[in-house]
Amino acid sequence: xxxxFDYENKNYLFGIEQQDNQNQSEYKLxxxxxxxxxxxxxxxxxxxxxxxxxxxxxxxxxxxNTAFLADFVLAFEGLFQNIxxxxxxxxxxxxxxxWAGYQPQDVGKKGEQVIAALLASRxxxxxxxxxxxxxxxxxxxxxxxxxxxxxxxxxRQEYELRVRRTPTSSEVLITDVGFGVFQILPVLVLCxxxxxxxxxxxxxxxxHLHPSVQxxxxxxFIDVIKTRxxxxxxxxxxxxxxxxxxxxxxxxxxxxxxxxxxxxxxxxQGNSQLIPLELDAYGNINNWPIGFFGDEMGExxxxxxxxxKRQKGSQSQ
Length: 317
Hints:
single chain; three-stranded antiparallel sheet; globular; four-stranded antiparallel sheet; 34% helix; alpha+beta; 317 residues
């Protein structure tokens, strides 16, 4: 286990590793860029890490100037307490939802808690700003005009999600509109429901969305990064999302240093390997994997040639 950081243009690294392969219970302290000071008479090996990532308690009794190492462990735990994940296989919409007043931590791995999260947000957000922001994005993405989340009847714990496709259309249940609306809803809600400064992990957020909405997701994520100080990790196959991200970088809406792109491929041993993509200030990817999104120009050329060939064949008959 190691922790590294930069401070005042200096790189520091701390950690512990096994002394040797013979005795797996004895460890030594790693320290690069910083000189640790032993207490006299306490130069013996350290025990194993705590929970695989924590320095053993003996650190503070063996060394005079390493009390700050505990801060790394607390920061590491704090980081993982603010990570929220949404998977690609998300729940189907329902005609009604039961909410008894509980507050979910997030929207659930399948988005199954999205309605509960929206309702719970009202207890800390009396002006319903989260719902308003989600509705604004649904409108801007061209999916629906607005939505209402309200109880079926007074003093009931059952709620309906009703939407309007246009300003003049009637309200209908979420089950009566396109499937993509409910698929993107957990993505939008999690972006504004999770605490500021969180890390969000989305697996194929573009699933069941048409190309223009996939592209618009990039704008959603950029807004969340800039206004809520979020870190967002995305696993995606969407060329449309990526192209919009590249465009926004070229337009200086997002700095290239604030984005990191990786291409996952199998190496010769059959293991997955992440290849960093070289993204410049103009949104260009300078080491683009050949053929990942197919050969667009080749397809257009082949289609044109086929059309010309058929037209000539028709004229000769």
